[in-house]
Amino acid sequence: MNIEQIYTGCLAQGAYYIESEGEAAIIDPLREVRPYIERAERDNAKIKYIFETHFHADFVSGHITLSKETGAPIVYGPNANPSFEAIIAEDGQEFKLGKLTIVALHTPGHTMESTTYLLRDEYGKDHAIFSGDTLFLGDVGRPDLAQKAANMTQEELAGILYDSLRNKIMPLADDVIVYPAHGAGSACGKNMMKETVDTLGNQKKMNYALRADMTREEFIKEVTDGLLPPPQYFPLNVKMNKEGYDDIDEVLDRGNIAMSPDAFETAANETGAVVLDVRHQEEFARAHVPRSIFIGLNGSFAPWVGALIADVKQPILLIAPEGKEEEAITRLSRVGFDGTIGYLKGGVEAWKAAGKQVDSVKSVDAKTFEQHWKQGGVPVFDVRKESEYTAEHVEGAHLTPLDFINDHLAEFPKDKTFYLHCAGGYRSMIAASILKSRGIHNLVDVAGGFADIKKTDIPVTDYVCPTTKSSN
Predict the structure, then answer these.
(1) Model's pTM, two decimal places?
(2) Which CATH number fits domain 246-353: 3.40.250.10, 2.40.170.20, 3.30.365.10, 1.10.150.120?
């Protein structure tokens, strides 16, 4: 028996390769399928099944392409109704893989088709579960994504998830290994642990949602409390996973086109494409094409693209480090952004050499920011998440989370210099690029973010709940 977790940090996503006696199964594959095919070839194995735990919202799976290239059937759990041919497993249906058995356990709640796959070894002993978005480490899947499709409230879906966990997952032995679809950083949950593999027994101790004495009502309240709105691209990814999409090779052929500065500028003007700069934030700060948006490959690239660009059909023109163009196109396609139409050959240096205008972002280190802050009256905007801000923030700073930066545009001063920061400098540069594209240029980025600010003498504070005055 061979089990491999193929983890993609940018998406905080785990796909799985299982092999026994020359037969292999892939669970929740990513869009680019060649690595799975090559992995099976190294074992002289044939991919027999492609299991999908549910219709994913945060990435486009490679199930359709992988099935076409290998002939392996796609397997979904009950209630799935894809537009393509697939095996819709019954609850408890078994699939043989060499000496192993994979059992489909219908575990609705995150979505109504959500299914956990239980792996039994050659002796029939329960060995592991591939829990998809039903059970994470430290958390469970959010129950608000499938409300429209299921015609249910998030509270009703949470109640169904409670039953799934209690009736299908928690009765399993403590030594069963849990392999979830996501880890910390995914928007599919809110309290995930940084680890990506654990035992069910430890999760019963550590995971708030698996408390043995938890009532249904308590579960519903805790699971639905504090849920932020999902990224706008989520339902578009579900649609692609359910109805189909272009092969990744076609997407690469369309997007991997080198353009001269003149051709690049013409394409931007004629198509309304977003000019997406994926270099390091320091390079973007020094010089960039005016009105381009920065989202660097070195951070959580694809999720931020999805959160901030939203429309997966948006045409995109890339500015990338040399040799990284195909990587950028591939990572965009993982979240359904298939509209890349080309990239700037020679990058910003070629743009400047052609005599075209460039812009920059003023960026200072934390020590310089400290000097300005001590002079008083310096507006500071924190683009981290609310939970980060609540834990600790610069005294007097305004919270304008990057996810919702467009909702806060009116709060930024028009005639006074203000400062932006995040945790380490990545998100604040994204925010700066968005603000500059909206015509707001009187900003200064704090390089190194809150991590470096804390090393200065600038006072920081945690959130203090306002006192409620008596109405007597």
Answers:
(1) 0.90
(2) 3.40.250.10
